[in-house]
Design goal:
By secondary structure, chain A is of the alpha/beta class. Chain A contains twelve helices and twelve strands. At the A-B interface, helix 4, helix 5, strand 2, helix 6 and helix 11 of A face helix 4, helix 5, strand 2, helix 6 and helix 11 of B. Chain A binds a DNA duplex through helix 2 and helix 4.
DNA sequence: CTGAAAGCGCTTACAG
DNA sequence: CTGAAAGCGCTTACAG
């Protein structure tokens, strides 16, 4: 079953490829091709089940209608939901998306960008890992359309979209304070990326504003690729029996930390929120049916994904328009459940 | 910054494109091109940051090194983990993957297949929705490499890979029986696909083998796009105060059902497993930190994803080899936690 | 050992 | 209004 091409249709009707191409691209009227011929072309195309070869189109036009997506890990529901939204919004405009998981590894993301570049994608949506500044700068220099999501590099001027992490953490911490918690800990991850840094900054500022001294021993920074046992150790140090200055609340900067943390807290036989109150970033299903449903900082993932695609496509479609970089910072909302205390 | 092409390199060195192409494709030795020239070509390619245009290659060779993946929803962790594995295994062999979420909607999957076809993907990995038999048959007729995952159509002979759902449900039900449960319910979804059907069959067979009559009122088949309230109603009918013949255990055929179900059970003030024992298919994080950690039927997602890619690439690479359809049925394992009783 | 040439399937100035 | 022709960037018989 050989695929049918433009010239198959042209031969079939005894007309030129040019004409067929015009008609099939809806330019029949523009070139004043007779309705009758238009109809014939369309009919034959249908009859022969013509499927345009997008790759040939791409080679000719320089546009592939494909975008490259680089995130940390598609198996992580945070990125799964984001990815889904991006796929959907892209499809609305006829774009496909190639998914790449970088595992927060700059070497991987470098290879993935190169691969996507070779695939001639029209643009990129990237959640850049630590130490990938040079890669992003190279894209910017190359005048390639791209949008960063979830994090960005303050020193690189470009489109980016995310949430107000400082504000989110500030509010979450305040919420715990307002419930009488005084020894609030923060468990985070050493990503060295603005988003995580801002979370801890917001947490600290809330304490400062409440005249509570910051204790560095209450801030646990785990390696990115932390295991269960790393979290377990941090939990033990914060709320275990022999902990020196026990924490009475914990702000988890990611849901992976939170889920592991809750497991460890339960394993120690402690009650949430009685023994320790909890607030976590992100809102996985797990938190709804948890031992004690978890109060969370919920990010508008749908809006992030959708906006990212819109900004990207806008730049792709107007390559010569003067670029006005969009820096979108969305608000989060605090969903209050039982884990943070009554 | 114009991209550098083969002929740029050729001109730069005063040789032919042919030669450059040979060298860059590692065929230098095969064509006995002098080491010296090889080195020069490689150096210039590096210097000019040559990135082969895969799309041009694809047009010429008919191979794009791209595979199309159609699953129900990438935001669902089940498919997220599967997708991740597929992406990773494909990347190992130099293949990229275009992700498509069909939402179990055959109209969407039809469009997605057409889109992927136009993109000239080399093969497909598909988790086909109900009523998409004709689409799969068309692929088979077209002699296009593809592998089905998670479900398949018994009447269509093709590569497919999944788990032994009958066996899994049989064992899960037996496990509940062995813990003294007698009135075991099954909440499932009306997907009308072998995988779901086999689950309920396995459940029934376990009851039959234990000489327990099957009560249709204990089998709740919810619409695929069920809402929280649909699950809540089913739960109420099974274990609510005014339930006529209360169930003492529930087998959930999907984790989405299970998570919603547990929420509803808690809302009714019932205890798991005391009031009702639970086993669920699939193993999301949620089940680990649940009110009562959930006993689950765990599917070997990594192996499914990896094997699917291997079978697919094997067929892609040997298009003329006589196809011997592989029907891989993997075993699940039952991870026993508290929800199913002591 | 190396190069000139054809061609993959399109689009699009250009000419009439 | 319609067609012949060039060309996107590659690969690969073919010729020498």
């Amino acid at each position: 079953m050989k695929k049918t091409s433009l010239s198959d249709i042209a031969k079939h009707l005894g007309v030129s490829k040019t004409l067929v191409s015009f008609v099939l691209n809806g330019k029949g009227k523009e070139f004043r091709i007779s309705e009758e011929i238009c109809k014939k072309v369309l009919d034959v195309a249908k009859e022969l089940n013509y499927q345009p070869n997008r790759i040939a189109q791409g080679l000719r036009t320089g546009r592939t209608n494909t975008i490259g997506l680089i995130i940390a890990d598609i198996a992580n529901p945070f990125f799964g939901i984001l990815g889904r939204e991006i796929e959907q919004e892209a499809a609305r405009f006829g774009y496909r998306v190639i998914f790449c998981s970088s595992d927060e590894n700059p070497e991987k993301s470098r290879q993935q960008i190169a691969m996507l570049q070779q695939s001639q994608v029209d643009g990129y949506i990237i959640s850049p890992p630590k130490n990938s500044e040079d890669q992003i700068k190279a894209l910017a220099r190359g005048n390639v359309p791209f949008v960063l999501i979830d994090r960005y590099f303050p020193e690189i001027e470009c489109h980016h979209i995310g949430v107000d992490n400082f504000d989110a953490a500030y509010n979450a911490t305040n919420h715990l304070l307002s419930h009488g918690r005084k020894r609030i800990a923060n468990i985070t991850v050493n990503l060295d990326l603005v988003n995580m840094i801002q979370r801890t900054k917001g947490y600290k500022q809330a304490l400062i504003d409440a005249n509570i001294p910051i204790e560095e021993s209450l801030i646990k920074v785990l390696p990115f690729s932390h295991e269960n046992k790393d979290v377990a150790r941090a939990i033990k140090e914060l709320v275990g029996k022999s902990a020196q200055h026990k924490a009475d609340a914990i702000l988890f900067s990611t849901s992976k930390l939170g889920i592991n943390g809750i497991e460890s807290i339960s394993a120690l036989g402690l009650k949430i929120p009685d023994d320790v109150a909890i607030v976590s970033f992100d809102n996985p299903d797990a938190y709804k049916i948890c031992i004690s449903p978890v109060t969370v900082v919920n990010q508008p993932l749908k809006e992030i994904g959708k906006t990212a695609v819109q900004i990207l496509l806008n730049q792709i479609k107007h390559p010569d328009a003067p670029v006005k970089f969009q820096e979108v910072i969305l608000k989060t909302d605090l969903i209050i459940r039982k884990s943070s205390g009554a």
